[in-house]
Amino acid sequence: MVGLATPDDAAVWRLSEDKAIVVTTDFFTPVVDTPYEYGAIAAANSLSDIYAMGGQPFLALNIAALPDNLPVEISTEILRGGAEKAREAGVVIAGGHTVKDKEPKYGLVVIGFVDPRKMLSKGGLQIGDALVLTKPLGGGVTTTAIKQEKAAESHIKEAIEWMSRLNKTAGQLAVEFDLRGGTDITGFGLLGHGLEMADDSRVLLHIENSQLPFLSGARSYAEQGIFPSGAFDNKKHVGDRVRFDEKINEPAQMLLFDPQTSGGLLLGVPQFKLESFKKRAEELNQPVWVIGEVRTGNGIEVRS
Ligand code: CO
Ligand code: CO
Prior knowledge:
Elements: E1 11-16, E2 19-28, H1 35-51, E3 56-66, H2 72-88, E4 92-100, E5 105-114, E6 130-133, H3 139-147, H4 153-164, H5 168-176, E7 182-184, H6 189-201, E8 204-208, H7 218-223, H8 229-238, E9 242-244, H9 250-255, E10 265-269, H10 271-283, E11 289-295, E12 299-303
Parallel strand pairs: 3-4, 8-12, 9-12
Antiparallel strand pairs: 1-2, 2-5, 3-5, 6-10, 6-11, 7-10, 8-11
Helix pairs in contact: 1-2, 3-4, 6-8
The protein binds cobalt (II) ion (2 copies).
């Protein structure tokens, strides 16, 4: 149902009328200095693509590349962080593979199931849908500040909490409210992944900059110019398809190209469902931000 021809968050293969298998993989180099948290974030990020398709993960394999001289306590902590995050998701890690490499890399292969009639996809947005985001932005600038040893302790803690948070409840909400348009915000940032949705759904995304949630340190790191190189790649890649209100200054624009690690879901919620959706999100302790709406047209416009 979903493969190389229509790239989405995961590959989907129909098994029967009401069941399809969802498969995805993701792995990356450390984004934080603590091995346990790195493992948990990498696992939450890998599991996220299953939730972004409206699916339920059930089985995973570790993929790791670790330096020869890495103390065993550290590699154990990375894998333990991943295993405990998987358990929280109700997922069994049933095996995996490790190779030697100079720079550590870790992630999961994840298999899940989805009811094909209820699948979320990047092309499922409808004109009028509210755009809802389920985690704050600014993960890229914050982890870059960590790497440059410029990050405040409280900002590191906050970023780790959000990046290790599963998109499980956000995915559950999408399924409960029978949503069709959704993705997770990762390396291409809000605008890169937003544009994929706009193009696949043949619509315009109208985003209200003032409604966007950010990690506490993000704006100040942006103003100091602490951006990962991926932010510039993203801008180069999709910048000409985005129309910014002239009141939005350069650092504020760049923040929207900031690549995220284990970011939130971006969902299209039909207006008539929005109030009950927000109420249910509150019951489930799932933060949600309405950041704009889907309109006729193409590309993305960002208003101040
Ligand atoms: Co994804
Ligand atoms: Co992915």
